[in-house]
From TrEMBL:
<dbReference type="GO" id="GO:0004420">
    <property type="term" value="F:hydroxymethylglutaryl-CoA reductase (NADPH) activity"/>
</dbReference>
<dbReference type="Pfam" id="PF00368">
    <property type="entry name" value="HMG-CoA_red"/>
</dbReference>
<comment type="pathway">
    <text>Metabolic intermediate biosynthesis; (R)-mevalonate biosynthesis; (R)-mevalonate from acetyl-CoA: step 3/3.</text>
</comment>
<dbReference type="GO" id="GO:0016126">
    <property type="term" value="P:sterol biosynthetic process"/>
</dbReference>
<dbReference type="InterPro" id="IPR002202">
    <property type="entry name" value="HMG_CoA_Rdtase"/>
</dbReference>
<dbReference type="InterPro" id="IPR004554">
    <property type="entry name" value="HMG_CoA_Rdtase_eu_arc"/>
</dbReference>
<dbReference type="InterPro" id="IPR023076">
    <property type="entry name" value="HMG_CoA_Rdtase_CS"/>
</dbReference>
<dbReference type="GO" id="GO:0008299">
    <property type="term" value="P:isoprenoid biosynthetic process"/>
</dbReference>
<protein>
    <recommendedName>
        <fullName>3-hydroxy-3-methylglutaryl-coenzyme A reductase</fullName>
        <ecNumber>1.1.1.34</ecNumber>
    </recommendedName>
</protein>
<dbReference type="GO" id="GO:0015936">
    <property type="term" value="P:coenzyme A metabolic process"/>
</dbReference>
<dbReference type="GO" id="GO:0005789">
    <property type="term" value="C:endoplasmic reticulum membrane"/>
</dbReference>
<dbReference type="GO" id="GO:0005778">
    <property type="term" value="C:peroxisomal membrane"/>
</dbReference>
Length: 266
């Protein structure tokens, strides 16, 4: 028996949308739009300024729990934060005829005059991308080069990738026997958990601080300070260690970040 296939467009909205914002910019093969409920959490008192945070989600209680957290921090003077590091990375992998040649390239890149030569080409591709350092690590004939750059207010992945391509072309002028296998050799590491990101960081690293009075813990969070401390040790520290978690020693963050990204764009 052949079942009739229902075209996806029958249940997809496509009217009353400015497609000029999409074409040639951020999506391909566009056939419509999807409506997602947007809630707002706030006020969030951050560095002595109030913000209202839009969150697009279909997960029940997510906006409410975020809002309750914001409310709990208000009584202690809000949240204070600083960007402690700005270092987006891209780690291409290249190949040489021999392992010795790979090490030669590593040593060449570590010389200050050669680094500045690569930096000049790297920086020329953008008004905001600036190469801060690079880390070259050989693995046999392969050489993984982790470029570390500032990217202004942007996340900057495409910015850094473009700059890396030109930097590799520049490097190839001095190492004609080098073969570029991939602009990303997973040494970045992008969109995957890794030890190098956990230790060295990637992108914007942020330090945030908030003081929540014990009274607020009881009235707003409906628990006690000793109970939270005990749970944090058991769950976030011991439990995460038992699971072999990499950089995930938190109770819950990803869904809130995702909801904000969907509401505000990448």
């Amino acid at each position: 028996m052949v079942q009739k296939q229902v075209p996806v467009t029958e249940s997809l909205s496509y009217k009353n949308y400015d497609y000029g914002k999409v074409y040639g910019a951020c999506c391909e093969n566009v056939i419509g739009v999807v409506g997602i409920p947007v809630g707002v959490a706030g006020p969030l008192l951050m560095n002595s300024k109030e913000y209202y945070v839009p969150m697009a989600t279909t997960e029940g209680c997510l906006v409410a729990s975020t809002n309750r957290g914001f409310n709990a921090t208000l009584s202690g003077g809000g949240i204070f934060s600083r960007v402690s590091s700005d270092a987006m990375t891209r780690g291409p992998v290249v190949r040489f005829p021999s392992a010795m040649r790979s090490v030669e390239a590593k040593e060449w890149l570590e010389m200050p005059e050669h680094f500045h030569k690569i930096k000049k080409d790297f920086d020329s591709t953008s008004r905001f991308g600036r190469l801060m350092s690079l880390q070259a690590t050989p693995a046999g004939k392969f050489l993984f080069i982790r470029f570390v750059a500032k990217t202004g207010d942007a996340m900057g992945m495409n910015m850094v990738s473009k700059a890396c391509e030109l930097a590799l072309q520049s490097l190839k002028k001095d190492f004609g026997d080098m073969e570029v296998l991939s602009v990303s050799g997973n040494y970045c590491t992008d969109k995957k958990p890794s030890g190098i990101n956990w230790v060295q960081g990637r992108g914007k690293s942020v330090i945030a601080e908030a003081i929540i009075p014990g009274k607020t813990v009881k009235t707003v969070l409906k628990t006690t300070v000793p109970a939270i401390v005990e749970l944090n040790i058991a769950k976030n520290l011991v439990g995460s260690a038992m699971a072999g978690s990499v950089g995930g020693f938190n109770a819950h963050a990803s869904n809130m970040v995702t909801a904000i990204f969907i509401a505000t764009g990448q």
